[in-house]
Description:
Helix content: 55-70%
Number of strands: 5
Number of helices: 12
Shape: globular
Strand content: 5-15%
Number of domains: 2
Largest sheet: 5 strands, antiparallel
Structural class: alpha+beta
Order of helices and strands: EHHEEHEHHEHHHHHHH
Amino acid sequence: MNGYRFHCDIARLYDRLLVHKPLFQEMANRATIRFVANRAVFLFDSSQMSEKTVNAYSEAIGNLQQEFSRADSGRRALIDYDSSVVLFPMTGNVLAMTFIEMEDQLSLFRDIDWPGRLQPFSYTDACDPPKEVSAKDYQKRLKMWKFALGPTMVPSHRGLKFELSSNREALLHVTPEQIMDFIPSVDERAEKIVSSSNQLMKRFSGLEEFDSASQFIEIYDKFRDWLLTDEGRSEKEKDKLKVIETIKAEISLDDLIG
């Protein structure tokens, strides 16, 4: 959650949100389609490496729904475009709380040509005031937010919620045909396969299995540093070339839907 203060009336602010809402939803739609495309291609490529049969598109949709379920339950998700802003009309200005998980949408929100001035206006008891805000002004923020939120301190109890985009709506725009516009390059696909495989790390460590999670983390940290060396980059490129020789260069819709 980020807090802001708009130096304008709520009617003008609401009009601007209405104008930009389609941009937020379109961003969510495209990102959701791209997520499914990347996941489906990865599953298809992985099946080629292991010589297994898979309905990559269906499994990718299942993975997407799992991520959206994680988001619904308040857990951290790889993708979550349930975005909204809650507005609190004040005298001469409006306080706002944004509930936006994805950085690209947050950047879009900040870059809008808002009426009046957009001022970062967050407050939390857990942190010291930002360097540019005095302790006196920070206490003023606290009083304004307590007044805006009321005794329950629940934003939706006192504020006006405006939905910017939703996962539910984005999911409606995903089709097998749509994902074909977002197929990654062969090099990107090989990079993903190599990065997701433990084979290179096992060769680096000389171990076939890891005894514990702590051992895995310790070796992984060393392995990550090794990948930045000339030797590590060379070994990774060799693995990528092997993957490129194995996976299908041009992926068709039939490949992904099985």
